[in-house]
């Protein structure tokens, strides 16, 4: 995997009670996040491969089956790299998904609290939202200019401005690339290149093979993680960090 240079790893200590309290005290959006996580876990929509028509309004899901598809591939987007042996948290996400948008500030705070202790990987997963693919393609196009994280953050932070619309928001999403100062000729060329969508679909198809049926879906060290509270995540991370030191 093409990872950034390893940094000095911070001491692998569990979060203190006050640190966990700080996480739990994230403003009202946290309560929404926890509710939406629970809803997404218990009532995941059935998802088809990109381009396939939906023929069911029912629910799907279940525990991922064993697959030869790796959770982290050579071209996966690694936002935080804590080095060899560190716990690896993988999130399959959809930039238009309300649950993903609600849990985004929680994950960002966790990334700060566990900086240097965990590796965090973000992977695309396309659900039945109108602009899900437009958003993912834009982020992948930005990644070609080294701006994956910046576009990832921009789309989640601006989600109320463009998400849940019935018409294409590609122009609005493009404006965020301009705000980030990207080379717009290169960005537009990447958006139009079928290889960019193919890269998004690669993640989606990997997720399908791994049993992902909705977003957000988390895996920690290769195992499905189904959090219903913030402490479910932090406790799992603490345990994985402790195990990595044994």
TrEMBL record:
<protein>
    <recommendedName>
        <fullName>Thioredoxin domain-containing protein</fullName>
    </recommendedName>
</protein>
<feature type="region of interest" description="Disordered">
    <location>
        <begin position="49"/>
        <end position="68"/>
    </location>
</feature>
<keyword id="KW-1015">Disulfide bond</keyword>
<feature type="domain" description="Thioredoxin">
    <location>
        <begin position="57"/>
        <end position="242"/>
    </location>
</feature>
<dbReference type="Pfam" id="PF13462">
    <property type="entry name" value="Thioredoxin_4"/>
</dbReference>
<keyword id="KW-0560">Oxidoreductase</keyword>
<comment type="similarity">
    <text>Belongs to the thioredoxin family. DsbA subfamily.</text>
</comment>
<keyword id="KW-1133">Transmembrane helix</keyword>
<dbReference type="InterPro" id="IPR012336">
    <property type="entry name" value="Thioredoxin-like_fold"/>
</dbReference>
<keyword id="KW-0732">Signal</keyword>
<dbReference type="InterPro" id="IPR013766">
    <property type="entry name" value="Thioredoxin_domain"/>
</dbReference>
<feature type="transmembrane region" description="Helical">
    <location>
        <begin position="21"/>
        <end position="42"/>
    </location>
</feature>
<keyword id="KW-0676">Redox-active center</keyword>
<dbReference type="GO" id="GO:0016491">
    <property type="term" value="F:oxidoreductase activity"/>
</dbReference>
<keyword id="KW-0812">Transmembrane</keyword>
<keyword id="KW-0472">Membrane</keyword>
